[in-house]
Amino acid sequence: MANRYQEAFELLHSYYGDQQWWPADTAFEILVGAVLTQNTSWSNVEKAIVNLKEAGVLELEQILSMDDSVLADYIRPSGYYNLKAGRLKNLLRMISDVYEGSLELLMEDDWRNARENLLSVRGVGPETADAILLYVCEKPVFVVDSYTYRVFSRHNMVEEETDYHSIQETFMDNLEHDTRTLNEYHALIVQVVKDFCRKSKPLCSTCPLKDL
DNA sequence: CACCAGGCAAGTA
DNA sequence: TACTTGCATGGT
Known about the structure:
It is built from 12 helices and no strands. The chain has helices spanning about 5-15, 25-35, 40-55, 60-65, 70-75, 80-100, 105-110, 110-120, 125-135, 145-155, 165-175, 180-195.
């Protein structure tokens, strides 16, 4: 095995098998979910998405033309609903203005350019932008989240004092830039944290990464 | 009851 | 620049 970052991937993949995220039916649903899941459990996000689906408004034009207060009401279960109603519309407005409202055009754009456009949206930070690039646009980008830090700082594989970009660089420097693998890796990290590395469950004698 | 969840931006000094 | 605070629902 070439390095510990690849080794961790193999351990997780052997343990869990393929995940192949994101859990959603359409690209637009992934996009919406990426905003709604900010600091929020996925189960709450699902309820919000179901609300939008059942109302038949899970579409760019529909959401953009909706009052913030109406949108907030649909997405209430995902928490921070007033904040996220604004953030979601900011994102969709950018896609409307810059990409003619077309996710296809967003996907076809050079990903570095798309990343800049995503980060220019108020309410879209590095994790949300990278999640969209990886899971909507299928670009080879490693998504860092608080779980990544929690797991890999325990194994001394990222610095205690660090930032998003440094963690991302560490992984990108040590992994193949392959979309399928990076998709899988992020999904596996989320899964292993849920099972073995919750804050309330500090140590992990049965964790698949115990010998890493 | 307290704590946590697949962040981000604004405010403070 | 470095640290703190607000945003909020639903599950454990």
